[in-house]
Amino acid sequence: MSNEAATAQAAEAVPAPEPLPHGLGVSLPAADARAKTEGTFPYAADLWAEGLLWAAVLRSPHPHARIVSIDTSHAREMPGVRAVVTHEDIPGSPFHGRGTADRPVFASEVVRHHGEPIAAVAADHPDTARMAAAAVIVEYEVLDPVTDPEHAFEAEPLHPDGNLIRHIPLHHGDPDAAGEIVVEGLYRIGRQDPAPIGAEAGLAVPRPDGGVELYLASTDPHSDRDTAAAAFGLEPERVKVVVTGVPGATADREDQGFQLPLGLLALRTGCPVKLTATREESFLGHAHRHPTLLRYRHHADAEGTLVKVEAQILLDAGAYADSSAEALAAAVGFACGPYVVPNAFIEGWAVRTNNPPSGHVRGEGAMQVCAAYEAQMDKIAKKLGIDPAEVRLRNAMATGDVLPTGQTVTCPAPVAELLQAVRDFPLPPLPKDTPEDEWLLPGGPEGAGEPGAVRRGVGYGVGMVHMLGAEGADEVSTATVKVHDGVATVLCAAVETGQGFTTLARQIVQETLGVDEVHVAPVDTDQPTAGPACHGRHTWVSGGAVERAAKMVRTQLLQPLAHKFGMSTELLQINDGKITSYDGVLSTTVTEALDGKELWATAQCRPHPTEPLNEAGQGDAFVGMSFCAIRAVVDVDIEIGSVRVVELAVAQDVGRVLNPAQLAARIEAGVTQGVGIALTENLRTPRGLIRHPDLTGYALPTALDAPDIRIVKLVEERDVVAPFGAKAVSAVPVVTSPAAVASAVRAATGRPVNRLPIRPQAAVVTERS
């Protein structure tokens, strides 16, 4: 037998490999997984350009001070220094900010928070740049900082716009309504840092036309471009933002104050300039979660049914407005949680202080109030002597109910179903009191805990978040889909921040067009805007735009065939790369139908409009909502106050599962982030100074701290107004899990637990307590 014949016979004996699954509902691997595992993913910190200069930023060591003088002469004279810029060197607008442009690019007269930028330097070596920044002499008149948000109301104005950023008085129902049972509470939520895997970095390259290109880990490139163009005194088309690999984003990539000095230095020197932040600079520069003070009073009848909720919510916005107005709207709108409350009276304020700026961090506003209203539900259950899950079930919201804002919940709201699922899930076994199982104790191996001091607690959290922007935000995204030679390309300025958009875009096109090979083009501002990567926007709006464009291409593909056979395109279907008719007369492949043609289409997706809350806190402010219920099981050493989260059982309203593996990973990541909020993460700022701005002093949960996470139920009740019927999944477990952990610690200790993160002393049980 010849070699050719033997090869042919062997080929016949080996079955052809099964085609890889694709399309919606399949666990398609992440599009960037290979590049990340091989180390070829293009992070901004890895970028390089010929003639590169290095930048460094001088930041204020004081939280509040008047600037008497700035002397840059020593820095300018240092060998290797190419430029030094301050507020005097800004050719355009000296202010920037998300939502409200109230933050100076460089402080000129007053510094309002620790770490505020004063000057920036470009030099031929990173060490030279840092030394030159340190050589800038700034004379300060140190002022007393306002760090207590309650004092901001009476304090002297910290900003020309005043100390009050927004006030929302929500009035819903009868103010005289009262219940037989009344419980009250005062709650404090600490400052959480996004703590990105990689610190901020960027590269600015001047263009021949006098413009500049910014290579950034941006989550909203068009907004960043417009802000940069305004500061540089340029037309937007002369500034281009190219999105590099984003090493995770939960708001930390939205610090525009990092980007602007970079571009100014490139324009000033005519050379590419790179800036890589240290971990300390990262902590000082980007926004954090709003520390919040909450006062609550709940009224209920003798059966535990809610009658009225009264609350006061105070957000510490830090020195500048950023997204505090939007965070306050979420906090006030969801202040009663996913429960039916006929009467609600909520007062919400966001104020400026001299603390570090607060901004968008996953679940902002909703997370803080969830911790408070769930503590109130525990108090009602305890006062009435009923099961904590039962009191929640008696008040659970459903589709058709009305929020305290007056908005009817039109989306699926299976709150009771979620809560029942986690309540009925079997509890984990108790740890054995044997030496080999000591690692199960709070404190871990070699911990100080004693088995006899450990108490187990079971608690519940039920949370909700809104999806997309709110209060009239114009949510729109544009996408283009092209098909040529059996390969599809998606162009959309939706940034992949880890939420899986590029994978989802591939799945949408595979599902719609039957094309296996789909590429998603890199993002830059030459493409039409897709908006910021937050609130599940890109799953809904950008995914919707991709789907519409793909369907338009599908029509272009099928119309000639439908016309040839005298039928409508609706009678043709595409499955596994094959086009067939309903009656079997037509059967061909997508490749044959394309016949070398290039097809393309561009489409937009814009959800139904919303409206701002009025002077009484009323209005249809939110596009859609998602819900989650979590049951937490914890072990607490009541002598030393250490807490171990044993298990978190999760049930979530997801609309439709588009990628099972990706969805599970997002839920697990959100739950783990919430554990950090509950137990360890607290960025301490005594008198406005960030203490220990590093990952040693800021205690993130590690893999050893992550509990067993059981996703016990995913409710797939499709939201009819959302593309594919899917809902965002990342934020709501972040919102819910801290409340569930706190509830379980309350159950284990009998202590009130009214502060997050939970301090050890709050979990210690003494005879007095």
UniProtKB/TrEMBL annotation:
InterPro entries: Ald_Oxase/Xan_DH_a/b (IPR000674), Ald_Oxase/Xan_DH_a/b_sf (IPR036856), Ald_Oxase/xanthine_DH-like (IPR016208), AldOxase/xan_DH_MoCoBD1 (IPR008274), AldOxase/xan_DH_MoCoBD2 (IPR046867), AldOxase/xan_DH_Mopterin-bd_sf (IPR037165). Residues 38-144 form the Aldehyde oxidase/xanthine dehydrogenase a/b hammerhead domain. This is Molybdopterin-dependent oxidoreductase. Residues 1-21 are annotated as: Disordered. It comes from Streptomyces purpurascens. It comes from the Bacteria. Residues 1-15 have a biased composition (Low complexity). PANTHER family: XANTHINE DEHYDROGENASE (PTHR11908), XANTHINE DEHYDROGENASE SUBUNIT D-RELATED (PTHR11908:SF157).
